[in-house]
Amino acid sequence: KDWTVVNQCRKADGGPWDAPAPLHCMPSNWFAVSATVQGQAKQTYALISPQNYTETTTALPPGQEAHVSQHEVCRLQTIPGIKALTMRCRYPIADVAYDIPGFPVHMSLEAMTPAIPLDSKASCIPVAVFQFSLKNTGSVPVEVSVMQAQQNFVGVVPVEVSVMQAQQNFVGWDGFVDCTRAHTSFWGGNVNTPFQTEAVGGLSMTSTSVASSTPDTYGTIAIAGVAAPGVNVEVISQAANEQDLYAKFQAGALQPTTASPTPPSADGTSYCGAVVQTVTVPAGGSQTVDFYLCWHFPNRSRSRSAPGKPYEKLLPSILG
Hints:
six-stranded antiparallel sheet; globular
């Protein structure tokens, strides 16, 4: 449950880093899938199970592992989720199997972050890797699109944020305010920029409101799909909220990775966006699609006396 991209750690031991509010209420951080079989209606789901998001789990203390925010329960009232999922952990890898009755392909996920024994440099690379496996046991091809959603949360530190909160929690969101609301003082000037390299295509997320010299909050987020034969990588560069993002995905309102950047967002607002990979899985065949979540906050640290992150010495920018 820790949002470690921005150094947020939730503890419940009575110490100074206890979190009095849920740290996983950041919107638009999930995956979705859509599948089409010729002659049949398209099926689209968020890869989220309502089994994990209930009124009971929202009532738990924030420090407990099973606690969820009210937003996550409400999300599934407007965006359809799946029946269930099962996770098996083998550090640093998590294996997820999805239960989607009637869906034309079987889906599973292998997720990981680098953790290489005796190689601290490689282990500090700021990236999470998600590989989805799609298996078609039917007798006809299936076109499948998988979406990686992400909120652009880069922002400025409001004057009312305390030093403790800033040190503990902050690179554009303090972890205490429910940023799923329509307005938050942290955001404004956020820009999502589609990009394409030889290896990947995706979205880079920044803020024009944050100068490169700003402690803690200056940085970039990127989401990307791996370019591979038979895989079409596209983006949704600008959505107002999760419902808007899901509607665009369901409608196929996608853009090429060469599209123009979004205009800066209005004061108090930001965008969410997505990378979408589309493949055709042949009858009786399998296909994999790979996604990356990357972050680069070179001025972020736990200690004001020692700013900077180890990966800054290895990677001067989010694209290396």
